[in-house]
Amino acid sequence: FLVMNADILTDMDLGMMMADHLEHRPLATLAVTDRAASRAFLFNDAGELCGWRNVNTGEERISRPDEAPLHPGSFTCVHLIEPQMMKVMPGEGKFSIIDTYLELAKAHVIRGYRHHGDHVVDVGRPASILEAESIFA
Fold this sequence. Notes:
By secondary structure, the protein is an alpha+beta fold. The protein is globular.
């Protein structure tokens, strides 16, 4: 399943993301970029989700300890998930997808898909609407 926040506009190549997902067969694939952000997922050299970091506060949450350096990736709110994820997701009602992925990463492979050179605009912020109009109009 492709899941995408309703306020995200992008021209990323979803076919390439799907090919990566099908090649590795994780429970979920998260689209991430190398852009600077205050919060980021942390991935090992194999691209597997191992944790999360708040850059401003230094808080880290590690789901899968890995001795190698972890690489930050800023989540762009585009995900590919396998149907069985619905059976293993913790929580009910309203919940944090970040917390869900961190919890699932303890027992399942959650991968990051790094995409570059495309546009991702969060139009949930009024200031971004002009940016989106200049790119997608």
